[in-house]
Amino acid sequence: MFPGIDEALAQVVSPTMLALCLVGVIAGMAVGATPGLSATVGLALLLPITFTLDPARGLVLMGAFYSGAIYGGSFTAILVNSPGTPSSIATTFDGYPMTRKGRSEVAIIAVTTGSVVGGLVGVVGLLLLGPAIADVVLAFGPQEYFWLGIFGLTMIAGLAAKSLVKGFAAGFIGLLISTIGIAPVGGDVRFTFGFTQMQAGVPLIVALIGFFTIPAMIDLMVDPGSRAAAMRREARRREPGLLMRTVRDVLSRPVNLARSAVIGTFVGMLPGAGGNVANLIAYNEAKRASKTPEEFGTGKVDGVVAPETANNAVVGGGLIPLLTLGIPGAPADAVIFGVLMLHGLRPGADLFTEQGSLTFTFILALGVSALLLAPVGLIVGRGLQRAVVRTPTTYLVPAIALLTMIGAYAVRNNPLDVVIMVALGLLGYGLRHLGLPPPAVVLGVVLGPIIESGLGQGLLTASGDAQPWLSFFTRPISVGIIAVVLIALLWPVLGRWRAQRAARPAGPPDGPETGRGAEGTEREDAR
Amino acid sequence: MSRDVIRDLVAAGLILAVAALFWTRQDFDTPSDVIFPRFVLVVLIVLATAVGGGALLRMRRGASPTRSGTPDADAAGELPPEAARMRDRNENPPTAAEGVPAGTAAAAAEAAGSPHASGAAARTGAGADEAEDGDEEEPADSPGERPRWALPAAAALLLAWGAAFGLFGITLSGVVAFVLAAVLIRRGPGGTRRLLLDVAVALVVVLFCWAVFTRLLYVPLPVSVILGV
C-alpha cells in the first residue's frame, strides 16, 4: 500500500533527520512567535537554505519548520494577545484571558497537547485519506468557497455575546476593510484614498496585529498594575504536577480534540482557506458544542485547545491537495511546492509510487515534528512564558510594541503599514469600548476575500445561465454548506429554547437562569 | 440618557460615518467589483440604523433594557444575585474576544469619577472568574494609578512611534519611543538611574531586534537618516 515506507521510516529516525526536525521545529517556533512573521514568510526565508540540501532533507527541514511556526504562533497569542501567525487568531480569545487570570502556563501546556494531537491527525489524514479525499476537494468551486466564507461569518454569533447586531456591524466593517485595494476579480482599484501603497489592500497580518495587540498594549500602558497582579497570581499558582494534570485534562475531552483535528485537516485541504480559517471554525464549533459556551472568551482551556489542534492539523491536511494534485492548500504549502519543483519532483499520484521513499520520508518527518512539539514546546514555550511573566511591564510593553512595529513593516517593507497597524489598533480600541468586538472585524478581514472571490468567480462561471445567482443554490456541495450555515444560525436559538425549557420548572419563567439564557435573551433583544 | 444609549448612538454614528466615507469613494464601475462592497455598505447602513434606532427607542422608553452591568440594576433587585453574577461574567470578560475587556469597565468606572471603582473595575477581567475560583483579588500595584492623561498619552505615543518608524528608522525612533513608553508606564522618569537603565535596556532590545531582522532574517528595516544606520 505504501511503497518505500520502510525505507522512509529508517531514514526519518536517523540522527541527521531527527536533528533537522529539531532545528526546523525550534526555528519555526521562533519565527512563528514573532508577530508579523508568518509561517509562509519563514518558509520563504528558509527556501535558499534547502538549495544546498538533498530533496529529502530539504523537505524534512521545511516540514518541521512549518509545524514549529504554526505552533509558535500560539505563544504570543496567549502571552501578549498578539497572534504570531494568522493561524492563531482564535487562540487569543481564551488564551490571553487565561494569561490575565494568571493561567498562561496551563494555556501553553494545553496548546502544546492540542498541537501534537492535531499535527499527528493531520499527518495520518495525509497518509491514509489523502488521495481519496483529494477528489472531493476538486469538486469545490467558487460557489462553495462563497458559502464557506458565509459559514465562517456565522461565527460572529458566537463572538458577539452582547449584541448580535453590533457583532455583525463589526464583521461588516472588517469586510469593508477587506475590499480596500485592487479587486480580486475585475481588477478595479477601490477605496485607496489616494495612497498608491494601499493598492495591495490592508494585509491581514497588519490588521490582526493592530486589532489584537495595540489595544492590549494600550490597556497595559494605561493600567500596568493589572498585569502585575495577574503575574503574581501566576507565580502563586505554579505547582508541581501542573503539566500532567493539564495534559490529562485536555486528553480527557477527546471529542474536542478529534473534532478540531478533523476540521483542521479538512479545511487545510481546501485551497485558499488554511489555518487562519480552520482555527476560527474549530473555536466556533468547540463553543457551539460546549455545555458551557458562556465560559468561552473568559479563559477556557477548550478555547485554546480547539484552534491550536485545528491549525496544526492544517499542516498535514494542506499537503493532501499539494502532494496528490499539485494544488497548494495554503500559501505556506505553495513554498513547499516550490521546493518540490526545484528538485524536479512532480506532485501527483506518481509521487507516492515513483518517489515513495522521499514522499513518505517527508510525511513521516511531519509526524516526528509533531511529536517533537511536545518536548521542545514545553521547554521553549514554558521558558518563554516564564520569561514573559518575569519581565516587568515597563520593558515588556515597549519591547512587544517594537516587535509589532517591525512585524507590520516586514510584511511589505512599507512604513505606511506601521501607521495603518497603529491606526487600526486605535480604531479597535475605540470599537471595543463601543461594544463592537474587534475579533469580529478581523473575522471580516479574513473572510472578505474568500467571500468576494467566490461571489465574483461564481457569477462569472455561471454567466451563461439565465439566472447566474441560482448556481449558488443548486450545486450539491453548496446545498450541504447552506444547510450547515442554517444550522449554525439556528443553533443559538435552539440552545436558548432548550435552556428555557430546562429552566422552566426550576425558576421564574422570565428570569435568566443561566449565562446562556442571559446571552440568548440579549441576542433576542438585539434582533 | 443612559451610558448605553450614548454608546450605541456613538457606535451608530461612527458606522454611518465610515459607510458614508467609503460610499463617496466608489469611483469604480466593473460590475463584479461593485456588487460586494456596495452590498457591504448597504448592510452597514442598515445595521447602523438598527443600532441607533434601538438606542433611540430605549431612550424614548426611558429605560435601558441592555444589561450593561449598572450597579443600580442589581441594587434595585432587577435580577436575582446568581443571574446578576452570571450576567457580569458574560458581559465583562477580560478579553477582546467578547469585545468588552477589563478596560471597558475600568473606563466606565473612571468616567463615573470613582477612583476606587476604577481600580476595582480594572481588575474585573480576572476578577469575576477569580472570585468564582475562590481566589482573592490582587490589588493593583498602585491604587488609583489610572490618570486621565494615560490613555491619550499612550495613543499619541503609539501613533507617533508608528509615524517615526519610517521617518527616523528603527534605531532612533525605537530607542526614544521605548524609553518614553517605559516612563509612561512608570508614570514618571523615576530618577536619573532608572532613566539611564531604561535607555540601556532600550538600546539592547532595539539593537538586538535590528541585528536579528537585518542580519539573520534579511528584512531591510527602515534606515535612520539622521544617524545614518
From TrEMBL, chain A:
Q: Where is this region: Disordered?
A: 502-527
Give one Pfam family, short name only. Answer: TctA
> Has the keyword DNA damage been applied to this entry?
no
Where's the DUF112 domain?
Answer: 18-443
- Kindly state which keywords UniProt assigns to this record, in alphabetical order: Membrane, Transmembrane, Transmembrane helix
List where the protein spans the membrane: 12-31, 59-80, 106-133, 145-161, 168-186, 198-222, 322-345, 357-381, 393-412, 418-434, 441-460, 472-494
> What is the recorded name of this protein?
DUF112 domain-containing protein
The species is: Streptomonospora halophila
UniProtKB/TrEMBL annotation, chain B:
Q: Output compositional bias ranges, type Low complexity.
A: 93-128
Q: Domain of life, per the record?
A: Bacteria
Hey, what's the signal peptide range on this chain?
A: none
Q: Does the keyword Ribonucleoprotein apply?
A: no
Instruction: Give the Acidic residues compositional bias ranges.
Output: 129-140
Residue intervals passing through the bilayer: 5-23, 35-57, 156-183, 195-218
What keywords would UniProt list here?
Membrane, Transmembrane, Transmembrane helix
Key word ATP-binding present in the record? Answer: no
Where the record annotates domain DUF1468, the positions are 11-222
InterPro entries given for it?
DUF1468
Q: Where is this region: Disordered?
A: 61-146
- Record-given protein name: DUF1468 domain-containing protein
What is the species of this protein? Streptomonospora halophila
